[in-house]
Amino acid sequence: xxxxxxxxxxxxxxxxxxxxxxxxxxxxxxxxxxxxxxxxxxxxxxxxxxxxxxxxxxxxxxxxxxxxxxxxxxxxxxxxxxxxxxxxxxxxxxxxxxxxxxxxxxxxxxxxxxxxxxxxxxxxxxxxxxxxxxxxxxxxxxxxxxxxxxxxxxxxxxxxxxxxxxxxxxxxxxxxxxxxxxxxxxxxxxxxxxxxxxxxxxxxxxxxxxxxxxxxxxxxxxxxxxxxxxxxxxxxxxxxx
Length: 241
Fold this sequence. Notes:
Layout lengths: L14 E5 L2 E4 H21 L10 H21 L7 H16 L13 H23 L1 H6 L9 H36 L3 H45 L5
Antiparallel strand pairs: 1-2
Helix pairs in contact: 1-3, 2-7, 3-7, 4-6, 4-7, 6-7
């Protein structure tokens, strides 16, 4: 399989197969590879789940990851975290595995593609109002866009769009720049230094996955914040919630 050259900005530019308007590039191939690993690995780990003290190492690892994600969500929302684990956990695991696999020769992280990071950010963009509306109701959620008065409505909309762009560009910029730096170092320096940078890049990849997941949860928690304000207002007025 062809490796992305240093002078190529995105793995989208490496076309493996094309027929009419249908195009298969490196980003699509490696995205499906990551998804296959996640689905296959999840099935293998969970097919023989055990409640005994002596569990498999893989089940223990999965439990640690899920427990950590749950505790982070619980800390931000102060409520049950199970409703948000499917989205936040999937985002973290997909981005983390995509970045960590960069250690495999010839592999290019899908997160080095602006299209991939934009798709992930759009998922968050859609999830925020969905969670907000499901918890607060449509009217109470929309009311927040007109606070403190209707003049601020366009600014709230711009804020939603700008944070989606920030999620997209932050992840893409960090992963893409790391890949290019490694490619340049391999062409001009001995092997040892690029290996050190690659190890550092793995750490950065995990951190970027964590940051993306945390920011996504922060945005969702801000949408849920309207519910707290509503209940406080109802309580202060002596109206049954």
